Amino acid sequence: MTTIENISDSAPEKMLRILDCFTLQGGQLSVGDISKLTGIPRSTAHRWVGILRDTGLLDQDNSRDVYRLGLRLIHLGNNALWSMDISREARHVLEALSRSAGARSHLCVFDGNQMIFVTRTIGGRAGRFNSTTVMESSPCYCTSVGKAVLAYQPQETVERIISQGLHPYTPHTITDPDRLREELALTRKRGYSINNGEMEMHERCIGAPVRNAAGRVIAGLSLTDKTRKMTDDKIPGFAQTVIKHADLLSVQLGYRHS
Amino acid sequence: MTTIENISDSAPEKMLRILDCFTLQGGQLSVGDISKLTGIPRSTAHRWVGILRDTGLLDQDNSRDVYRLGLRLIHLGNNALWSMDISREARHVLEALSRSAGARSHLCVFDGNQMIFVTRTIGGRAGRFNSTTVMESSPCYCTSVGKAVLAYQPQETVERIISQGLHPYTPHTITDPDRLREELALTRKRGYSINNGEMEMHERCIGAPVRNAAGRVIAGLSLTDKTRKMTDDKIPGFAQTVIKHADLLSVQLGYRHS
DNA sequence: ACAGTTGTCTCATTTTTTGGGACGAGTTTT
DNA sequence: AAAACTCGTCCCAAAAAATGAGACAACTGT
C-alpha cells in the first residue's frame, strides 16, 4: 500500500529498530531523530522512547531532550555472555592450546558485527561472582577469529560487514570486498583462517571456527605469534592444532557430528 | 480484579521479564520454565519466545527445546558501553589520577546489579574500530567502586542487591545486611567509600561516585593499592584526590552543579 | 502400556498500539 | 519584533496485535 515496505513489525522488532538507530548513528538521539531514522511517526516514537526509558533500555539526558542506550543493555549483554557455556569451557581449551603450540591464544564471539574477546578467570572459591568476565571487541574482517567466523555466516551478513567499510589498520589489511570474499571462500575450503599482519604489523594468527549446540558458528579460536616465529612451513601443523581445539570446544558447547 | 496484581505490562516490560528469567535462573530455559517463572501462560510464552528467537535476542539449542540469551544482546550491551561518553573521557582522567596518586585506578559502571569495569585504549589512527572496549564485572557490595555507587542508589536497589546474597570473598567481606547499610550511609556522608580487603586480601581501595548528565550516579572511580602502602593517615588525602577526579569526570559527562 | 508433561497450533475476544491532529514552548528567519 | 518553523507532548477513535483457553501430538518415565 505505502511506497516503501509496509511490514508490520512485532513489538520486539520495532523496539530493536529503535535501539539499532543508536548503534548505527552512535551517541545520542532525540525523539525527532528516531522518528526520522526509523520512519516511525513522531507521536508513536515519542511513546516508545518513553517506555524504553522507563524500562531502563534507554537513558535520558535530563538537560536536553536526548536519549542514549541504557545501562540495562549492558547488564543484559553481560549476562548473555555469562550464560554462554563458552565462558565456562573456554579457559581449559585456551590453556591447552597455548601449551601445546607455545603461543598466545584467543577466543572471540561474533556478535553480528564485531568479534568480542571472551575470557574468564576463576578465583579461589566457588560462586557466581567469584569470576570475572572480560569483553573486548575488534573488527571481524581483519582478525583470524573474525575471518574464521565470517566464512560460515550467511552471505547477507558478509555483505553487511563489507558495506560498513573495510578500514585499513596496516598496509596488509584487506580493503577490497572481492579479496575478502575470496579469502573467506579459501578459509571455508581449508577450514582455518590466516591473519597476516592485517590488524597488527608483524603479527600472524591462525583461526578456526567454533560451533554451538545449534550448529551455528558463533566464535573463533586463534593462535597468535610474531610473523617471524610463525613461518609458512609451520602453519599447516599449527592449523591442525587450532582446529582440533576449536572442535573440542564445539563439542563441549553441545555440538554433535564431526 | 485478580488476586494478585493485574498490571498490564507494555511489550518491552514483558520482554524484559522474560529475558530477566535467564539472568536470575542462569543458563538455559525451556518454554515451560519461562511460563512458570514469569506467570505468562504457556501459549503466550511460546509465541514470545519464538519472536525473541527470530529477532536474535534469544538463541535456541536446536537439539533440545531450550533457549539461551542471544548474541544480539551482547552486541547491544557492547554498543551501550560504546555510546557512553564515559568510555571516551575515562582514559585521561584515569591516567591523571594514577599519576597524581601513584597507585592503580579503576572506573566501573553500575549496570543495576554488578560493577562493570570499563576502559578503553586508543590505538594509532582514528576511527570507530581502532579502539577496544573491555568489560569485566565484579560485585558491588565488596568493592570501593560498588559501594560508592550503591550509596547513591534508591533503597530498593540496595535491598535487591542484599537479597541476592552477600557472599564472602575474604574474612573482611561485609556479609551482614545492616553493616552494609551503615557502610553505605557512612559513604554517603563523607562522599567516598573504602574497601578494606573485602574482595582481595591486603588490597585497599578508595572509591568516589561519578554522575552522568542526568545527575544519576552511574559509575565509580577508585584508587587501589596494597594495604600496607595505603595507610590510615594517607586516606583522607587520597580520598580528596579521587573525589576531585570523579567530579571532573562527572562534569565531562555533562553533569552540572558542584 | 499408561499417565503426566511439554511443544505447538488455532481462533474468537480482549487489549493495546497506532498516528493524525492540536497545543504550547523554543528557535530561527525575515 | 513578529512571523514561520521545529520540536516535544498529549488526546482519542480506528486499526491491529496480543491474548489464552483448548485441542492435539510427541515425548518421558514409571
From TrEMBL, chains A, B:
It comes from the Bacteria. InterPro entries: ArsR-like_HTH, GAF-like_dom_sf, HTH_MetabolicPath_Reg, Tscrpt_reg_IclR_C, Tscrpt_reg_IclR_N, WH-like_DNA-bd_sf, WH_DNA-bd_sf. Coiled coil: none annotated. PROSITE patterns: HTH_ICLR, ICLR_ED. One of its GO terms (molecular function) is DNA binding. The keyword Transcription regulation applies. This is IclR family transcriptional regulator.
